[in-house]
Backbone:
């Protein structure tokens, strides 16, 4: 089962988010260190999604928490706050695009849409370059490379813009289909809540993926 990888990577996401907040609060923090932690978080997020799609709940909550975290930091002049907050959003978006690229890399079923990987990496590069403007000439090199890749893919791959969201649309449709197959007999929201409470608190403990597994002699004994 995927639960081991899911628990490891989601726990690592929470840990890295806390490290980012701690680093942000540190007056002597260095820009490259902050960018490095965000990069690690982006990679970890992609691995978590590849291990099990439900990790998007933890990943989304972590990114959402980081989005609002600066409002609780030490107050700074309004103009400076907005300038640093835009860079902060650049870090978050960069990590998000990196998560998408890593996720597609580790999902062979979606390799038909291979161009999502370089496109996501290019956007991640642009976001990190925007957030780290003090890197001098290196920022312009990274921006130039990212824009070149984006333009090249759009010009050379037909239908690329239309296909960008296809994997995520298909995954959502399949998840909804699975959910409807599981709860199809429950016609109202109240029935679903009642079914969930019944399964959580009143049904006997189930030790198998499916109840009928207990009928197999090798397992039941």
Residues:
């Amino acid at each position: 089962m995927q639960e081991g990888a899911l628990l490891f990577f989601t726990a690592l996401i929470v840990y890295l988010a806390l490290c980012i907040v701690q680093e942000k609060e540190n007056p002597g923090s260095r820009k490259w260190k902050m960018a490095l932690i965000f990069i690690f978080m982006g990679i970890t997020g992609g691995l978590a999604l590849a291990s099990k799609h439900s990790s998007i709940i933890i990943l989304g909550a972590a990114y959402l928490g980081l989005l609002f975290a600066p409002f609780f930091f030490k107050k700074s002049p309004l103009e400076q706050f907005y300038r640093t907050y835009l860079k902060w959003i650049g870090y978050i978006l960069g990590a998000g695009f990196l998560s998408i690229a890593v996720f597609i890399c580790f999902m062979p079923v979606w390799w038909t849409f291979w161009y999502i990987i370089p496109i996501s990496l290019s956007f991640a590069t642009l976001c990190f370059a925007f957030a780290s403007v003090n890197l001098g000439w290196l920022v312009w090199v990274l921006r130039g490379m990212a824009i070149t890749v984006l333009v090249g893919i759009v010009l050379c791959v037909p239908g690329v813009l239309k296909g960008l969201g296809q994997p995520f649309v298909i995954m959502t449709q399949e998840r909804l289909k699975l959910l409807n197959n599981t709860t199809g007999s429950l016609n109202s929201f109240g029935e679903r809540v009642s079914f969930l409470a019944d399964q959580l608190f009143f049904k006997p403990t189930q030790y198998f993926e499916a109840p009928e597994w207990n009928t197999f002699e090798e397992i039941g004994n």
